Amino acid sequence: MIPGTFDYHAPATVDEAIRLLGELGDEAKLLAGGHSLLPMMKLRFASPKHLIDLNRIGALKGIREQSGMIHIGAMTTENELIASALLREKCPLLPEAAKWISDPQVRNCGTLGGDIAHGDPGNDHPAVMMAVDAVFVLQGPRGERLIVADRFFHGLYYTELAPDEILTEIRIPAVSKGTGYAYCKLKRKTGDFATAAAAVQLRLDGGVCKKINIALTNVAPTALKAGDAEMSLTGKVIDEALIEQAARKAMAVCDPAEDQRGNRDYKTHMAGEMTRRAIRQALARAKGN
């Protein structure tokens, strides 16, 4: 199908984009990579009267380190995440997960901020952001505010982002020595959303798990933090019995919708299996194996 008619706007600054959002109100939508919005417009599930294209705003792009934090512009593409030497050294879970997203064409245009702001539980970055303790910078007419990833996702396509705000930057703590990570994803074919996936980042000190984050993709209306599973491993020397216990606790928080990828039981079971694999791989990397 063909989208409805709309007016196109291409602001050069964040302030200009925010002004346009305020003036145009609910009839405007922000355009980042376009891989979520444009298909919905073609199907007439979305019919905005105005598109505000963020691609000309240079301030929304780039990756840099400042005071132990990695700052990533929201319009940074998936391929730029994958190619970043800084991320491979200081936040390796992010480029690893980006490789799992769709196909090369999509990764060349799709953006980190667009993936996050869309609020789709099938997108890969929301769970990854929870696993790396990301903080989102939201900017609107009243200034900036910072929201941790755990508190950003409220429901299906529903986030903390206000209608007059823009997600401008993602900030992530640089990893320290003894950190391991993994993103394990089950999907039916190249380019598909996850049937289930698990993002894990942990830190060891003397063989003891000092901190671990476990987050799940596409097994609930939002990405999920598996808090009970994390608590079962924190402060302990992780072995297979504890990994099994953590996987079962992760399965207990799942609430997947049935679709062509499987029924509830299958998706929940696969979430547990992806959690097992991700913990094992992160543990091995933390040990230097």
Key attributes of the depicted protein:
single chain, globular, 5-stranded antiparallel β-sheet, Uridine Diphospho-n-acetylenolpyruvylglucosamine Reductase, domain 3, 11 helices, 4-stranded antiparallel β-sheet, 2 domains, alpha+beta, Enolase-like, domain 1, 289 residues
Folded structure, characterized:
By secondary structure, the chain is of the alpha+beta class. It is 34% helix and 26% strand. The mean pLDDT is 93. The longest helix is centred in the last third of the chain and has 23 residues, at 264-286. It folds into two domains: 63-172, Uridine Diphospho-n-acetylenolpyruvylglucosamine Reductase, domain 3 (2-Layer Sandwich); 182-284, CO dehydrogenase flavoprotein, C-terminal domain (Enolase-like, domain 1). It has eleven helices and 14 strands. Helix 9 packs antiparallel against helix 10 (240-252) and helix 10 packs antiparallel against helix 11. It is globular. The chain has helices at 14-24, 37-42, 78-83, 85-90, 93-98, 104-109, 112-117, 125-131, 227-233, 240-252, 264-286, and strands at 7-9, 28-31, 50-53, 63-66, 69-73, 135-140, 143-148, 153-155, 158-159, 166-173, 179-186, 196-205, 208-217, 224-225. Strands 4-5-10-6-7 form a five-stranded antiparallel beta sheet. A four-stranded antiparallel beta sheet has the order 11-12-13-14, sandwiched between helices.
